[in-house]
Amino acid sequence: MSTVTRQTFNEVMVPNYQPAAMVPVRGEGARFWDQQGREYIDLAGGIAVNSLGHANPKLVAALTEQATKLWHVSNVMTNEPALRLAKKLTQATFADRVFFCNSGAEANEAAFKLARLWGNKQAAGKNEIISFTNAFHGRTLFTVTVGGTPKYSQGFEPLPGNITHLPFNDLAALEAAMSSNTCAVVMEPVQGEGGVTPATAEFAKGVRALCDKHNALLIFDEVQTGNGRCGDLYAYMGMGVTPDVMTTAKGLGGGFPIGAMLTTAAYAETLAFGTHGSTYGGNPLACAVAEAVFDEITGSEVMANVLARGAQLRAGLDAIGKRYGIVDASRGKGLLVGAPMSAAWKGRAKDVVNAGLAQGVWCLVAGPDVLRFAPPLNITEAEVAAGLQHLDAACAELCAQPQAVNA
């Protein structure tokens, strides 16, 4: 086996990423180790993906068992793991039907195609999709256009048309913009990439009412907020609002790629035979692992741990903020937590992430001005405390640097 290092990335990979200098090689629970054997506390979770940590024994067992049976058949045939998972998802949610794919972007692509197809069947011109500024819905051309961050779509013109972006949590702006030509409104219960900004209860309920008024679909992008991340199986369950279409991915597979779009039987009829597809969607390996994730999240104390550890993490971040003046009050739901950079440290969230890695803790950014945390849902009290201790040391080191004085 040939030796590879971080330098190998620069030699063989397309440069659209800038990965960290260290290379992880092994993980266990909320910890992982790099090529030099150094240990890190994982407060990032593979960007909210490793919902039950690294190398979870139950997920390893599910994958290993399925690997000896059936790997892939395509959607010319169905398979047992996909059917079992779909049944559990529909029994636990508002939905009646499931479309499986491989990622959150693909799940959103399916949702937006359904909305357009449904709207065009309702009336000529009913194909406007409304989204919100700072939203993130994926990196395909359609999903990146619906997303509300222009930098991700610049240079890829011409873009799909008739997509409107409005301020998040601004119900009056939405009310003024919606019309009979609106086929769907898409929103994240908590904007993840856009700064870990939760939707207010008033806004979420108002969006639902406006969609009902204008006969438009309400699409909830729960790619990041779902699968226990916010303290409910899906975040909509704690909001008193039920969408017409919901997308999920990330934590659903616990690290194995899988995505899904869920909807009612009536709206599912829009995607009739041949209208959409996915070669790997509903893959037996992915569905077997996702079923094990689902069973663990819904059948244990995971959800209670999410709320307890989320409160612990936010209290620790707020204490660090007061101690060093680097971050302001934290926000978020459950174990999707954001810490906005203070005025003096605007634009330097990545500096904190890098300093954290040097101290042995991994966290994320949500843009240049917000630190983001999305650790495994089963992270322990001791592991959160250790991660906060490492982050505290990182902030202390940053504050001790001369350039921090006038940051």
From TrEMBL:
It comes from Stenotrophobium rhamnosiphilum. Its cofactor is pyridoxal 5'-phosphate. Belongs to the class-III pyridoxal-phosphate-dependent aminotransferase family. ArgD subfamily. One of its GO terms (molecular function) is N2-acetyl-L-ornithine:2-oxoglutarate 5-aminotransferase activity. CDD domains: OAT_like (cd00610). Pathway: Amino-acid biosynthesis; L-arginine biosynthesis; N(2)-acetyl-L-ornithine from L-glutamate: step 4/4. Homodimer. It is an enzyme of class 2 (transferase). It is found in: Cytoplasm. May also have succinyldiaminopimelate aminotransferase activity, thus carrying out the corresponding step in lysine biosynthesis. The lineage of its organism: Bacteria, Pseudomonadati, Pseudomonadota, Gammaproteobacteria, Nevskiales. Binds 1 pyridoxal phosphate per subunit. Its main location: cytoplasm. The modification N6-(pyridoxal phosphate)lysine is found at residue 250. GO terms for biological process: L-arginine biosynthetic process. Pfam families: Aminotran_3 (PF00202). One of its GO terms (cellular component) is cytoplasm. Keywords: Amino-acid biosynthesis, Aminotransferase, Arginine biosynthesis, Cytoplasm, Pyridoxal phosphate, Transferase. Its EC number is 2.6.1.11. It catalyses: N(2)-acetyl-L-ornithine + 2-oxoglutarate = N-acetyl-L-glutamate 5-semialdehyde + L-glutamate. N(2)-acetyl-L-ornithine binds at residues 139, 278. It comes from the Bacteria. This is Acetylornithine aminotransferase. Pyridoxal 5'-phosphate binds at residues 104-105, 136, 221-224, 279. Coiled coil: none annotated.
